Amino acid sequence: MQLTGRQLANKWLKTEVLLQDSRIAAHIPQTKMYTAANLEKMLQRFGMVVIKPIRGGGGYGVIRVKLSAGIYTFTNLQKNHIYRSYNLMIKALNKVKVNRPYIIQQGIHLSTIGGRPLDYRVKVVKENGVWETRAVVGRLARPGLFVTNLCKGGTMLQGRTALQQSLPKHMVQKKRTEMRNLTRICTGLLENKFPGLGQLGFDYGIDRKGRVWIFEVNTRPQ
């Protein structure tokens, strides 16, 4: 069965809606529109950020940027670019970015399996006026990559299996429930703002301390 519903590609618009609810805002990494000044400030504060196009999916155009001991590094897929000054780094970065607006998101040190970063996709669909959870899966990055997208070689795992292999036993059910509850609240917020939605895919990360983060919401989840 082909599911349909309103499409909303702009990551920034969806993030703005979710940030207005205090229950959700605490789970969203700090996010700003991409400018050279914003990037420098966020690197100074967090040491690691991810930049990604406002529109697009599949990990396309996603770049990780780091600052450590005065050295700037950005990673595009598996290639690392290393610079000793911010100005040199930003010039090179602007040549690599795809030609579209970007956002900057606070970098999160994700829980891992075998050293490979792991995140989660929760997919919900609306049928007969009721939202139902269709899938909770883990996505394990291909060795050497930081993006977990399946189209970039990531491995799909059952959600419970991914949680069990990456977290202490006592946290598994708690984090599964937390992601489901956040999904329910976010779905209500987004549907209220953007009527006509028919399906949503929530991308979650769990950091090394067990905190759940909402990275983005897709209206056309794969």
Summary tags:
12 strands, alpha+beta, 222 residues, six-stranded antiparallel β-sheet
Task: Outline the secondary-structure elements.
Elements: H1 11-19, H2 22-25, E1 31-33, H3 36-46, E2 48-53, E3 63-68, E4 71-76, E5 79-83, H4 86-96, E6 102-106, E7 112-113, E8 116-127, E9 130-140, E10 155-158, H5 159-166, H6 172-193, E11 199-206, E12 212-218
Antiparallel strand pairs: 1-6, 2-3, 2-6, 3-4, 4-5, 7-8, 8-9, 8-11, 9-10, 11-12
Helix pairs in contact: 5-6
Structure report:
It is a single chain. The chain has 222 residues and is of the alpha+beta class. It is 29% helix and 34% strand. The chain has six helices and twelve strands. It has a six-stranded antiparallel sheet, with helices on both faces. Strands 7, 8, 9, 10, 11 and 12 form a six-stranded antiparallel sheet that branches. A hairpin with a 2-residue loop joins strand 3 and strand 4. Helix 5 packs across helix 6. The radius of gyration is 17 Å and the shape is globular. 31% of the residues are buried.
